Every structure is written in C-alpha cells, then in structure tokens.
C-alpha cells in the first residue's frame, strides 16, 4: 500500500506562476482594503465591486499556468497516496494534474448562490466573467465560490482528518497566518515526517520536528521530490 502524503499549500506555490501572494509588498492584494472586497459585509454593501474584483482575479488565474512545483506534487502520486489541501482559490493544482485536491477557501472558477442554499451547489463559471445577471435556480444572485474573511471554513473537518492520517506532510508557500488552516499543523501524528518549503522559513512559527527548506516552491519541491522518490 502506498504511504499517505499530504500537502498543505498557500499562495506562495503559485507565485512562480505569476499570481501575487496575499502578503507580497506591492502585490495586487496590497492595493485593496480586504474589508471592501473579501467579506460578507462587502458583498451585502457592494456586490458589483466584489464581483468585479474576483472577475479580475479570475482573469489572472486563467492567464497563469501551473509551475514545476504543482507538477512535482502531482508526480508524487506515482509513489504515494497524495492529498493536496490548498488555501488557494486558483485551480493550478488541478491543472498541474493533481487528482485529489481539497480547497479550503473555495475555487475562483466556480460560483455559488448568495441565498440560503449555497453550500455543496457549485456552478462552473465560463471564462473570466461572473455577471450580475447570473442566478441560481432559486433566483438568487451568484457569488464567487470563495470563503471570505469572517465566514466558516466547511472543509476544515475533512482536512483535519486527512492531516491526522498523513505519514508525510509537506507545507509549501504559506505564511501560516490564516486560521483555521494554519492550525492543521497541530494535527500531524507523532511519526509523521514534516517539511516546510518557503523562502522565508525563519519568519514562520513551526511546531517541533518540522524540517525547514528555505527555498522557493519550484526549487524546494524539486529537491524534496528527489529525496522522497530515490
Ligand atoms: N493563488 C491564490 O489562490 C491566492 C492568492 C492570494 C491570496 N490567496 C488567499 O489568501 C490567503 C493568504 O494566506 P497564504 O499563507 O496563502 O499567503 P501569504 O501571502 O500570507 O503567504 C505567502 C507565503 O508564501 C511565501 N512565498 C513567497 N514566494 C514564494 C515562492 N516563490 N515559493 C514558495 N513560497 C513563497 C512567502 O514567504 C509567505 O510565507 C490564503 O488563505 C489564500 O486563500 C490565494
């Protein structure tokens, strides 16, 4: 039986695909007040602004391509039973050929109802544009399938179980500032081998026993892939 390998990724894994991280200085996200575009209150006040913000993000995602780090994670499936837990709303893991991807914070290529029956009913968005006229079958306006700040994270329970069962755990490209995702590190089992790939590992608070690989995602995943498959 293949060993269970779990990856927890954050926006840093997509940086080398040209998508800004959340906290990068001068990055795109820095130009916006998050409260104006990524909260339920923002949607209630200005749904058009929020829709347009995510339409622009979706455009960037569609223009981007998976990088070697996404692909190396997918290639680990030849040797391991791999689950990717991503905080990213882009779909670069899927396009990099990973088969088992759990999106903690949603998927920007999908929409959901802004009405009461939102969860588990997701609608693919054709191209980059979600329009104000796009509605769910009950007539509610569609919103991006993204977990906004202040909203619950429905997938966290499943993710916690997946992490608890991991024999190898790789954390890549996340500042570990966003909860509950960052709390997943506390659920690894005693014998799990844990690695963290990030160019700023010294800025991260890591539990004991995590091996820090101070590299960008592509270089770090290439090195770790060799180690884990040789
Ligand atoms: N691509 C996306 O889908 C995307 C983009 C921006 C924000 N977000 C959302 O914003 C939240 C922010 O949390 P976060 O921890 O993911 O992002 P973050 O910006 O807080 O942290 C990014 C981390 O990536 C590291 N990094 C930068 N360049 C890297 C590279 N080339 N290779 C590897 N690591 C690199 C940084 O040192 C940092 O530790 C997430 O929940 C996510 O949902 C997603």
Descriptive report:
- 27% of the residues lie in helices and 19% in strands.
- The chain has 230 residues and is α/β, with parallel strands linked by helices.
- It has two domains: 1-19 and 67-105 and 154-230, TPP-binding domain (Rossmann fold, 3-Layer(aba) Sandwich), CATH 3.40.50.1220; 20-63 and 108-146, SIR2/SIRT2 'Small Domain' (2-Layer Sandwich).
- The strands form two sheets. The protein has a six-stranded parallel beta sheet, with helices on both faces.
- A hairpin with an 8-residue loop joins strand 4 (106-113) and strand 5.
- It is globular, with a radius of gyration of 18 Å.
- Identify the CATH class of the largest domain: Alpha Beta
Looking at how many chains there are and whether they match, the oligomeric state comes to single chain
Number of domains: 2
Q: Which homologous superfamily in CATH is the superfamily of the largest domain?
A: TPP-binding domain
Instruction: Give the cofactors and ligands.
Output: nicotinamide-adenine-dinucleotide
Q: Sketch the major β-sheet.
A: 6 strands, parallel
Strand order of the largest sheet: 3-2-1-7-8-9
Poorly predicted spans? none
Average pLDDT, all residues: 95
- Tell me, briefly, the overall form: globular
Provide the helix percentage.
Answer: 25-40%
């Amino acid at each position: 039986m293949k060993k269970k390998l779990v990856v927890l990724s954050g926006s840093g894994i997509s940086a080398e695909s040209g998508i800004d991280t959340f906290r990068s200085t001068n990055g795109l996200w820095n130009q916006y007040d998050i409260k104006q575009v990524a909260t339920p209150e923002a949607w209630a006040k200005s749904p058009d602004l929020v829709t347009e913000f995510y339409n622009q993000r979706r455009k960037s995602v569609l223009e981007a391509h998976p990088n070697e780090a996404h692909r190396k994670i997918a290639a680990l499936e030849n040797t391991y039973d791999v689950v990717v837990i991503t905080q990213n709303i882009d779909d670069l893991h899927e396009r990099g050929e990973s088969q088992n991807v759990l999106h903690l914070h949603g998927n920007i290529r999908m929409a959901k109802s802004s009405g009461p029956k939102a969860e588990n009913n997701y609608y693919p968005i054709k191209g980059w544009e979600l329009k104000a006229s796009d509605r769910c079958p009950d007539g509610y306006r569609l919103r991006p399938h993204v977990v906004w700040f202040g909203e619950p994270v429905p997938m966290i329970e499943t993710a916690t179980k997946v992490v608890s069962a991991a024999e190898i755990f790789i954390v890549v490209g996340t500042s570990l500032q966003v909860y509950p995702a960052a709390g997943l590190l506390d659920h690894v089992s005693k014998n799990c081998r844990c690695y963290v790939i990030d160019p700023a590992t010294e800025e991260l608070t890591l539990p004991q026993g995590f091996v820090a690989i101070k590299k960008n995602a592509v270089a770090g995943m290439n090195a770790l892939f060799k180690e884990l498959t040789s």
